[in-house]
Amino acid sequence: MQVNDAQRSCSPTKRYPYKKHALTSACDPLISSHIPPIPLLNPTIRVFVDRVTVDVEAGRGGDGCMSFRREKYVPRGGPDGGDGGDGGSIIVVAKHGVDSLQELVHRKHWRAKNGAPGRGSGCHGANSDDQVIHVPPGTVVRDEAHDLVLRDLTTDGDTVIAARGGKGGKGNTRFKSSTNQAPRDWTPGGEGEKRRLTFELKVIADVGLLGMPNAGKSTLLSRVSRAKPEIANYPFTTKSPNLGIVEIDWDRQFVMADIPGLIEGASEGHGLGHEFLRHVERTRVLVHLVEPMPEDQSDPVENYRTIRHEIDAYSTQLGIDLASRPEIVTVSKSELPGSEEIASQLEEATGGEVLRFSSATGDGLKALVQRVWETLHPADE
Asked: Which Gene3D superfamilies match (predicted)?
């Protein structure tokens, strides 16, 4: 039977049900031409994760061996049992290029391998390799059960042994003595340490942007750096810190962090306050953005005082001095009416100069960036 071109084009081997053009084919009139293409089943979504708890278990040491030398013409061979190998440890390493704790979210249990057991002929068991967990610089590793900080990994390459592997057991060769020529004693390998660890990331940046929700922090970061934070006209658009590198020229640059918006009661945990405030700890200079015309009709000067109060309260709780950290007070959205008056009120309240800028028009951005650099490097001026 001859097959014409129309029949050949409708052959089942030529149809691809997951392709958009196949759904609009005339070969199957029952399929609607308006059906959209099937989306990916497992799209990859990047999420900033700055706190996670995992269980770690170091490897067990290998057992020692009880063995005796048995060779021809050696009727009374002595003991030759080897020692067991050491179990692998769990090691946490700060690594440049890792920017969140995302990997730990999908793997809540980390276990190192056990050491190999000893064997006859004096063969010792092999030590197991360590299990390495890479985290971003700025991660605090805490023992959850004892509320103990194991180490603050602040720089690239910082390392901490989170769980130590068990020691290998002893073979019967170790127990040979002048009074015991054929010992049958041996010891099992030691157990590896088990811990529940909490990893807490505190963003490391030169400059931290502070302000009430929707004050314009993300917009400012996007204008002075290449960062692309989510920007929208509603509060709490930013739910995790965004980092951007501000380049003044080829040899002058600094890292700026957009801290999510703070509200009254943040020091007590309101509005995820503790999650947001801890990122302020690593910054060297704070840039405080005050919106001149808040949508909730609140007083801009009182908004400034509220955030300062929350920072002071948080500093007292942790025993750190954030209150004396250099601060640059600014009025954002200077294109709005009344921004000059708000700046004057803030200068009276703070006793210092208040800068005005507009991310929409670009006015004042260059002066703000220069002031930040001068505050970071006062000796250079």
From this structure: GTP1/OBG domain (2.70.210.12), P-loop containing nucleotide triphosphate hydrolases (3.40.50.300)
* 366 belongs to an annotated ligand binding site: no
Q: What percent of the chain has pLDDT over 90?
A: 47
Q: Known binder of ligand: residue 344?
A: no
Is residue 190 pLDDT above 90, yes or no? yes
240 in a known ligand binding site: yes
User: Does 176 count as an annotated binding residue?
Assistant: no
Is residue 211 part of an annotated ligand binding site?
yes
Task: Examine the pLDDT at 373 and tell me if it is beyond 70.
Answer: yes
- Which ranges in the chain belong to alpha helices (H)? 5-9, 20-23, 102-105, 217-224, 273-277, 300-318, 339-350, 365-376
360 labelled binding-site residue: yes
Residue 257 assigned as binding residue: no
334 assigned ligand-binding residue: yes
Q: What angle, 0 to 180 degrees and rounded to 10, lies between the N-to-C axes of helices 365-376 and 217-224?
A: 90
Six token digits for residue 310:
């929350």
Structure tokens at 302: 């009182």
pTM: 0.64
All structural domains of the chain, each given as residue ranges with its CATH number in brackets, are 49-201 (2.70.210.12), 207-380 (3.40.50.300)
Provide the terminal-to-terminal Cα distance of the chain, rounded to the nearest Å.
91
Does residue 62 have a known ligand-binding role?
Answer: no
91 closest CA partner among 138, 125, 59, 126 = 59
**357 pLDDT more than 90:** yes
Tell whether 333 is in a known binding site.
Answer: yes
The token duo for 211 is 């302000």
Residue 82 is labelled as binding a ligand: no
Reduced to 3 states (helix: H, G, I; strand: E, B; else coil), residue 340 is: helix
DSSP-derived 3-state class of residue 161: strand
Q: Is 330 flagged in the annotation as binding? A: no
SS3 state of residue 134: strand
